[in-house]
Amino acid sequence: MKDFDYLKKDEVYLDSACQSLRPRPVIEALNEYYTRHNSCGERVKYEWGVITDEKVEKTREKVLKYTKKSSRHYFVSFTLNTTYGLNLILSQIDVKKSGIKTIVTSDIEHNSPFLSTISCAKKNKIPRKVVKRNIDGSINLEDIPEKALVVVNCASNIDGRLLVNIKDVVKRVHKTGGYIIIDAAQTMAHSVEILYGVEPDAICFSAHKMYAPSLGGMIIKKDFAKLIDTTFIGGGMVDDVDKNTYLLSKDNKEHLYTQFEAGLQAWGEIIGLGAAIDWLEGLTRKEHEALEKNVERLWQIIKNKEKLHLINEQPATTMSFYVDKKEMGIDSHVLGAALADAGIMARTGYFCVHYYLDHVKHYPPLIRFSLGYHITDEDIDRVEEALKNF
Fold it and tell me: Could you list the pLDDT tens digit for every one of the 390 residues in the chain?
C-alpha cells in the first residue's frame, strides 16, 4: 500500500498487536502540528492554539462517531495508553458509592486489566473473580455475580478471539447492578464493529494499535464518571484554586473530559488519531479484502506446518504458535531471532498474558504474528519461505 511506502522490500512487520505502523496521512498530520501550529490546547488565545483546539475537539467527535457512541451519554478523554486508562478508573472508583461487591476479569486478559483488577480488589478489600473464557471468546453469563465491576477485553491479544456475546454480557452486568469496562486495545483497528450497539460503562483503548501515534483513549459513560473520586489532579483540570480548595472543570458539563486529563496533553498525537480514524474509514473494500486474504493464507501456512503448534481456532489478524524444544531442539525465542535475521519482525514470549499462557495452559514461549493493512502478498511469500523447513 502506498501509504506505507517507507518500508523496505526486505522488511516484514508482523507486530501490529503491539503497535501498528503509521500510514503517511497520520505522519503528515503529526508533522503539520509540530511545524504549523505547535501550541498548547485550551490555554492560549493566539491563532495556533485556536487551530489546535478545533482539531482536538474534532478528534473527540470522531472517536464517538467511529465507535457509534452518543455524545448525550458518553465523553472522550485522552491519556497515555490502555493500561493507564484502566488504572485511572480502577484506582479512583468509589466502590462504596457504586455498591460494587466483586471485581471480575477473565483468564485470557492482558496484564493491563489483570493486574489493575488485583490492585483494585486489594485496595478496596473486596473479592476478585477470574472467569474462564470459552474457545470462541464468550463468557458464560452465570459466571458473572451480582453487583460486579467487570473488566474484560473484547478481542484477545493472543489469538484475536472476540467477546462474541458482548451484548449479553453487558446486559447481564447492568441487570444485576454492576458495571463493565471494556479493554478495546485490540479491537479498534480491525474489529470495531463489535462495539456497535452496546453500552459499556467505559471503553479504554490504545491509539498506537489503530495506526495512530502513541496515545491512549477512554470513552466514558457520563453517569459512570460520577462514581469516580477524582484524586489524580493537575493543570487543565481546574477552573479555580484557592489556598486549600479547588473547583474541578468537570463540574462544567462541557468539560467532562478534563476529569481524566491532568496536565499538558499530547496535542499532536490526538490530532494524529483523528487522521488515523479518517484513514481507517477511507479504506476501500479491496484493501479490506487484501488483509483478509493474507490473514487466511498465513493461518493456513502455520496450520499446515506439523512442527508449529497453532493456538488460534480460526484466522485472525493476530495469531500465535509455539515450537516444542524437545521436538525441534529450539524454542520460540530462537526461531523468532532466526525470523528477525530474515527480516521478519514478530513478537516472542507471553505477550503480557503470563497467567493464562504460562500458569493455566503451561505453554512454552510463543511466537505471535499480527498483521496490518501494510502487509503484501510478497510479505506472506517471505514468511512462507522462512518457515519452509517446518
Answer: 899 999 999 999 999 999 999 999 999 999 999 999 999 999 899 999 999 999 999 999 999 999 999 999 999 999 999 999 999 999 999 999 999 999 999 999 999 999 999 999 999 999 999 999 999 999 999 999 999 999 999 999 999 999 999 999 999 999 999 999 999 999 999 999 999 999 999 999 999 999 999 999 999 999 999 999 999 999 999 999 999 999 999 887 779 999 999 999 999 999 999 999 999 999 999 999 999 999 999 999 999 999 999 999 999 999 999 999 888 889 999 999 999 999 999 999 999 999 999 999 999 999 999 999 999 999 999 999 999 988
The b/e string for 249-283 (b: 16+ C-beta within 10 A; e otherwise) is bbeeeebbbbbbbbeebbbbbbbbbbbbbbbbeeb
Q: Where in the chain is the domain with CATH 3.90.1150.10?
A: 2-22+284-386
pTM of the model: 0.96
Contact 274, 267 (CB under 8 A): no
Q: What CA–CA distance (Å, rounded) separates 236 from 249?
A: 8
Per CATH, is 2-22+284-386 categorized as 3.30.750.24? no
In the CATH hierarchy, which top-level class contains the domain 37-280? alpha beta
Smallest CA-to-CA distance from 263 within 230, 234, 239, 241 is with 234
Cα–Cα distance, 170 to 179 (Å, whole number): 8
In order, the DSSP letters of 226-276 are TTB---S--TTSEEEE-SS-EEEGGGSGGGGGGGG--SS--HHHHHHHHHH
* Complete DSSP assignment for 301-368: HHHT-TT-EE--SS--SEEEEE--HHHHSS-HHHHHHHHHHTTEEEEEE-TT-HIIIIIIS-PPPEEE
Q: Is 47 helix (H, G, I), strand (E, B) or coil?
A: helix
**Contact predicate 319/155, CB 8 Å:** no
Q: What angle do CA 332, 337, 342 make, to 5 degrees?
A: 120
